[in-house]
Design a protein that fits this description.
340 residues; single chain; TIM Barrel; 12 helices; two-stranded antiparallel ribbon; alpha/beta
Length: 340
């Protein structure tokens, strides 16, 4: 079946409801890496996703300290121009390369984001980025109005088609909207991490801002074969080892939720991963979900989420499982008038 598409706010871009997330393929060697990766497998995963109908990729300059963008650029060169996906990337995370495992600085100074833009264009091998996003709020005391005004100039210069933000709260979103329309918002959102469903996603719906949620499978927990034993086998530098979701007591509750998704997956003749992703895009205001993959097989696990709808029965069953297991936090069920 063809993947469903939705308009990304008022940007003029129609995107598939699932997109390829390129965080993990950046590899290891930095604070939030997933350990060493096989670049050939990563390129194969991107090409397979595009072959399955996915029409956009989301990456960031910080992923692998630029390596993710380089891998995405290589994949783009290997895909015929007529089939190339839209390319979304992010700026504002500046690493200290002498201490790569320390948290990057969150820097949205206009001169800094302009330098990042030029470097991203070069690594990706493109003349214009389809969606350019702030990765996190600034911590250098730069007014967001100055940063967002520079982003608007990138559009005027033809280097960027649309602009967005990630991990912003409603107060920052309001300030940006006064300067230039926020084309897109990227918040964390999964059946485990549900807080965005109570504030920024409704804000986006009210302002015609597209929403592409990240980590809809909670970085791998809400997949068919994940286990505590899998955590123990992760690379010692894998950022997930120190994340609360991957440690007790949260891990047991989350795996119980994952098990509760299995009957729903069986009813739809699909995977738990696809159900987890479909849950996020059932929420009013959500345009699409960013889903990571490091192999073609992983793509096949989640891409069906773009081909079916969860029923009211499914959503009620998931809400009950959330209450029963105590997994995560935030609102447990979207409004009945889900928009797809």
């Amino acid at each position: 079946m063809a993947l469903a598409t939705r308009p990304l706010g008022t940007s003029g871009m129609d995107i598939t409801t699932v997109g390829f997330g390129a965080w993990a393929i950046g590899g290891g060697g930095w604070a939030y890496g997933w350990g060493p990766q096989d670049d050939d497998a990563s390129v194969a995963a991107i090409r397979h996703a595009v072959g399955r109908g996915v029409n956009w990729i989301d990456t960031a300059a910080i992923y692998g300290l630029g390596h993710s963008e380089e891998v995405v650029g290589r994949a783009l060169r290997e895909i015929p121009e007529r089939d190339r996906p839209l390319v979304f990337t992010k700026c504002g995370m500046i690493p200290d390369r002498s201490r790569p495992y320390e948290d990057p600085q969150r820097n949205l100074q206009p001169a800094s984001i302009r330098r990042e833009l030029e470097a991203s264009l070069q690594r990706l091998g493109v003349e214009r980025i389809d969606l350019y996003q702030f990765h996190w709020p600034d911590e250098t005391d730069t007014p967001v109005e100055d940063s967002w005004g520079e982003m608007a100039r990138f559009i005027d210069e033809g280097k960027v088609r649309a602009i967005g933000v990630a991990n912003f709260d409603t107060a920052l979103l309001d300030r940006c909207e006064q300067i230039h329309h926020v084309d897109s918002l990227q918040p964390p959102f999964s059946a485990i991490r549900r807080g965005s469903g109570a504030d920024v996603i409704p804000w986006a719906a009210a302002h015609d801002t597209g929403v592409i949620v990240y980590s809809p499978m909670q970085s791998g927990i809400l997949t068919d074969t994940f286990s505590a034993e899998r955590v123990s086998r992760m690379d010692e530098k894998d950022w997930r080892r120190r994340n609360p979701h991957f440690n007790e007591p949260a891990l047991t509750a989350s795996l119980a939720l994952r098990d509760a998704l299995k009957p729903i997956a069986e009813r739809h003749h699909t995977t738990v991963a696809a159900v987890a992703v479909a849950w996020t895009i059932a929420w009013p205001g959500v345009t699409a979900a960013i889903v990571g993959a490091r192999s073609p097989e992983q793509v096949d696990g989640w891409v069906p989420a773009g081909t079916f709808d969860l029923t009211p029965r499914d959503l009620a069953e998931i809400a009950e499982a959330l209450e029963r297991t105590g997994a995560g936090s935030g609102p447990r069920q979207p409004a009945a008038e889900a928009h797809r």
